[in-house]
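Late entry, evening session. Most of the bench is empty. Finally got around to the prediction I had been postponing all week. Sequence below, unchanged from the version circulated by S.P.
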Amino acid sequence: MAYVLFTDLDGTLLDLHTGEAGPAAEALRALKERGIPVVFASAKTRAEQEVLRGALGVEDPFIVENGGAIFLPEGYFPQKPEGAKVREGYWVLELGLPYGEIRRRLKQAEARLGSPLVGYGDLSAEEVARRTGLGLEAARWAKAREYDETLFLEEPVEEALKALEAEGLRWSHGGRFYHAHGPNDKGQAVRLLKELYQRFWGPVVAVGLGDSANDRPLLEAVDLAALVERPEGGWHPLDLPGLWRVPGVGPEGFARAASALLEGRWGEVR
């Protein structure tokens, strides 16, 4: 049986505070040697993920901006999936709204709310770097959004979220920031990509790794789901059947789950 591993990035594959892969980097190499694709599924942009993929030697498809689109390296499958666009060396399956449309609806939500909704699109790269702690170049990659907007919401957050919903936008919360996007989510993208693997590869087992509530759609869409520990200790309170709570914070938990998968002992604590 073939496996495909879908993983969140910040707090799962990457340390939530340093952004480093640490022990997960070696685990990625072991998965690659065994021919197991690793699909990044994150709120991060294409630009951010391209840099990370290059640094970690990952060449498989990836899911950007909370399921806004799936990027498949051109020629990855024997034929281009129906509906995919050809763009800069990729076959792109778009599931979300264009960034310009999200920004337009955000302005309408802002008027409805009567107070500003500040997102990356309102700020310079220098301002994003200052607010997030990112380096300037990393802030530029983070600003290169195509399918969702990162928001700096102020209290009362609930009123702002209602204004987003009234304009037909969905939202997600990844631990630090809120994201406004269209009808897409990580789970929708995972299911579609799993179908493509099955069409071209035959039966596959989809494995999912995450660390927070924002990963629930991803974990619901896979066959084997695991949650890594949070930096503050313990696991995010997610109630999903068969969910494995892996010991180890972030990349340490990722590495432990990857080893268990490779050694045929998924769900065991060692």
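Two things to note before I forget:
The mean pLDDT is 95.
The first strand starts at residue 2 and ends at 7.
Will write this up properly tomorrow.
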